[in-house]
Design brief:
GPCR_Rhodpsn_7TM, three-stranded mixed beta sheet, olfaction, 315 residues, single chain
Length: 315
């Protein structure tokens, strides 16, 4: 398929996304699998959000942040998967230049909020376990809203910076992206301009957006672990650790895949590994989050049962 060019014959106006598989016979199976994953992810996260909203027991800071995380997970998968499903249905693999940059912006906006929101959840656990006497005043409704608003503002600045920076590059061919959505590493590989500034921005902002939150999360959990180990009863220790294990699992999946995706720009060849990491980032992680948070949490399980059956707690 030929790319479209402007009158000067140099500027690419659309990209070709190869998708997950190029074999036509496998595409119906890919469509069914990812449609099911999308519906499961949206349904699971909206169920968690509904449980947090209707269950009085879950009207706490931890679940306020969890509800926000569920909204982000729905948004993150919705930025990438529906457009991929649409291309599979229509057999049209082209995506306009503007649409590609729009997808990149919203993906980095939502992923950036995720970074800071996971940090806020770690801070919440630190205050709850290490500073229980002042917890209610340090993590009041105003503080919760400020943390969420700050997360959105910082992520917006990061996403806008990358989008504006990539828009200054020239794309004069080739225009084939070996992926199923538009993202920075793949676009940088296609540019015929110097991408040195963009790579410096990606590294510098990556340190701020991921490095700083990771340091804060690790520091919080070092203090949490020390406080939990001082608890005398084994039952008390088990309960304290169980409230943190779900969050740590999500943090591990999110940051592990993110670091692998964006901190290896020296590898200029697009590969199927990038697609695998992309699936982990945009599909598997948002799909697993509701399961991770509800699997060992009786309060969430009970709230979900009441939401799904329409029964309210009589207590």
């Amino acid at each position: 398929m030929e790319s479209k060019f402007e009158s000067n014959g140099t500027a690419v106006t659309e990209f070709i996304l190869l998708g997950l598989v190029e074999t036509a016979g496998l595409q119906p199976a890919i469509f069914v699998i990812f449609l099911f994953a999308y519906l499961l992810t949206v349904g699971g996260n909206l169920s968690i959000l509904a449980a947090v909203l209707v269950e009085p027991k879950l009207h706490t800071p931890m679940y306020f942040f969890l509800g926000n995380l569920s909204i982000l997970d729905v948004g993150c998968i919705s930025v990438t998967v529906p457009s991929m499903l649409g291309r599979l249905l229509t057999h049209k693999r082209t995506v306009p230049y503007g649409a590609c940059l729009t997808q990149l912006f919203f993906f980095h906006q939502l992923a950036g909020v995720d970074c800071f929101l996971l940090t806020a959840m770690a801070y919440d656990r630190f205050l709850a376990i290490c500073r229980p006497l002042t917890y209610s005043t340090r993590m009041n409704h105003t503080v919760q809203k400020i943390l969420v608003a700050t997360s959105w503002a910082c992520a917006f600045s990061n996403a806008l910076t990358h989008t504006v920076a990539i828009s200054t590059l020239n794309f004069c061919g080739p225009n084939v992206i070996n992926h199923f959505y538009c993202d920075l590493p793949q676009l940088l590989q296609l540019s015929c301009s110097s991408t040195q500034l963009n790579e410096l921005l990606l590294f510098g902002l990556g340190v701020l957006m991921a490095g700083a939150p990771v340091i804060l999360i690790v520091t919080s959990y070092i203090h949490v672990a020390a406080a939990v180990l001082r608890i005398q009863s084994s039952e008390g220790r088990k309960k304290a650790f169980s409230t943190c294990s779900s969050h740590l699992t999500v943090v591990g999946i999110f940051y592990g895949t993110g670091v692998f995706s964006y901190m290896r720009l020296g590898s200029v060849e697009a590969s199927d590994k990038d697609k695998g990491i992309g699936i982990l980032n945009t599909v598997i992680s948002p799909m697993l989050n509701p399961l991770i948070y509800s699997l060992r949490n009786p309060d969430v399980q009970g709230a979900l049962r009441r939401v799904l059956t329409g029964k309210r707690d009589m207590a």
